[in-house]
């Protein structure tokens, strides 16, 4: 890649990470549709459709067809051009980068213990719905989580819950699964949308609405969804237990339904 690539110089790029099970990409077309939307929104002249075949090829080339859990990553930048903030005057070819690698899934024993998170002010730009590679606020927040010896950090904007650094967050409040609305302040997660569909299939009340950090801290259950997260319970928030301090029944039901949906067969 050229040192003048705009992805390198400006984070002028979008990306997708797709989960795969036994080498089979899950919800690939939804991820490609979001990538295509991001390219259009940033006015990057590139076609996302050919990347569908790249996922299958990379799974095979990296011997991942028998892997329990892996990821297909794809990134498209505006391309290489002399450094200036405005788009290149003459068209340049986009830079496409992709890889696949195996992931380590949480064991049932580790999942049953649950995970921990902290809350932090949301310092990101106002277009978090675009899956751009400009992730410095996410990096800093995730580093704060690492230094606090917890797994996740949750962004709070003006007292309202948004999402995690690399995943979407849900709370069970009064028996209802609750998650922030799909505005420009959160990524419209593919796994997030699938989890809401699972709620409907299972007859679990669910709603997208703005909710406060105080509601989050008083929730019966908290869980995250994401490509590498799947459905993961949070049992400790800002050093205090969530609900009973154990993964809740709704989180467990959704996780079981998700694992059933992605199981090879």
Share of helical residues: 25-40%
- SSE order, one letter for each helix or strand: HEEHHEEHEHEEEEHEHEEEH
What percent strand?
25-35%
Supply the helix-strand structural class. alpha+beta
**Biggest β-sheet description:** 9 strands, mixed
If you had to describe this structure to a student in words, what would you say it looks like?
The chain is of the alpha+beta class and 265 residues long. Helices cover 31% and strands 28% of the residues. It is built from eight helices and 13 strands. The chain has helices at residues 6-10, 28-42, 51-61, 108-113, 136-147, 190-202, 213-217, 249-262; strands spanning 13-21, 24-25, 70-77, 95-102, 115-121, 152-157, 160-164, 168-173, 176-179, 206-208, 221-226, 230-237, 240-241. The strands form two sheets. Strands 5, 6, 7, 8, 9, 10, 11, 12 and 13 form a nine-stranded mixed β-sheet that branches. Strand 11 and strand 12 form a beta hairpin. Helix 6 (190-202) crosses helix 8 (249-262). It is globular. It starts with 5 loop residues before the first helix and ends with a helix.
């Amino acid at each position: 890649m050229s040192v003048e690539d705009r992805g390198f110089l400006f984070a002028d790029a979008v990306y997708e990470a797709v989960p795969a099970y036994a080498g089979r990409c899950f919800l690939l077309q939804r991820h490609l549709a979001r990538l295509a939307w991001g390219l259009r929104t940033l006015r990057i002249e590139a076609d996302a459709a050919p990347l569908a075949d790249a996922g299958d090829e990379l799974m095979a080339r990296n011997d991942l067809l028998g892997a329990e859990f892996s990821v297909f990553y794809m990134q498209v930048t505006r391309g290489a051009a002399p450094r200036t903030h405005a788009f290149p005057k003459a068209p340049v070819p986009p830079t496409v980068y992709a890889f696949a690698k195996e992931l380590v899934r949480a064991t049932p024993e580790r999942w049953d213990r649950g995970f921990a998170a902290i809350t932090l002010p949301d310092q990101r730009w106002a277009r978090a719905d675009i899956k751009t590679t400009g992730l410095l606020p996410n990096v800093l927040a995730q580093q704060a989580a690492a230094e606090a010896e917890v797994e996740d950090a949750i962004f709070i904007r003006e007292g309202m819950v948004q999402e995690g650094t690399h995943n979407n967050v849900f709370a069970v409040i009064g028996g209802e699964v609750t998650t922030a609305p799909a505005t420009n302040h959160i990524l419209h997660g593919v796994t997030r949308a699938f989890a809401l569909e699972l709620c409907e299939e299972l007859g679990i009340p669910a709603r997208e609405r703005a909710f406060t950090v105080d509601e989050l801290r008083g929730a019966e259950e908290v869980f995250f969804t994401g490509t590498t997260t799947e459905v993961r319970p949070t049992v400790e928030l800002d050093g205090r237990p969530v609900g009973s301090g154990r993964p809740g029944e709704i989180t467990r039901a959704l996780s079981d339904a998700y694992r059933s949906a992605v199981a090879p067969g």
